Amino acid sequence: MSVQNAYNAYKQNSVTTASPGELTLMLYNGCIKFIHQAKKAIEMKNIEARNTYVQKAQAILNELMSTLNMDVPVSKNMFDLYEYMYHQLTQANINSDVTILEEVENLAIEFRDTWKQVIQMNRQKQFSGNQV
């Protein structure tokens, strides 16, 4: 098995064995990665790559929106924020605007870091014997 095949198998396994919380964390990380790549593409004046990476970040935001439990009050606020981020990515794509990408990237980083803390707190509760 080649190194690339082994790596792909590892990635596939990490996704299929991840908890829902870990999957959400992976989505945030992917969104951040694609925004970062879109910024690089703008700097290199690569319009096709910029468009591809922005669309990948938008697809992740769509996935995050579709997984929200709208019975939970905070979900409406999260939906609105994700929708705003999606719209901003569209504007950044149209205008090749790195500043807008940085704004969305910072929001995604904040969400990711908060989500990481939630996962850590839940794990601590589970290990201490308390139920979440």
Task: Note down, in words, how this protein is organized.
84% of the residues lie in helices and 0% in strands. The chain has 132 residues and is mainly alpha-helical. The termini are far apart. The radius of gyration is 17 Å and the shape is globular.
SSE layout:
Layout: H1 3-16, H2 20-43, H3 47-66, H4 73-95, H5 98-127
Helix pairs in contact: 2-3, 2-5, 3-4, 4-5
Gross geometry: globular
**Largest sheet at a glance?**
none
Number of strands: 0
Please state the CA-atom Rg, rounded to the nearest Å: 17 Å
Compact description:
This protein is mostly helical and 132 residues long. The protein is 84% helix and 0% strand.
Q: Keywords, please?
A:
132 residues, mainly alpha, 5 helices, 84% helix, globular
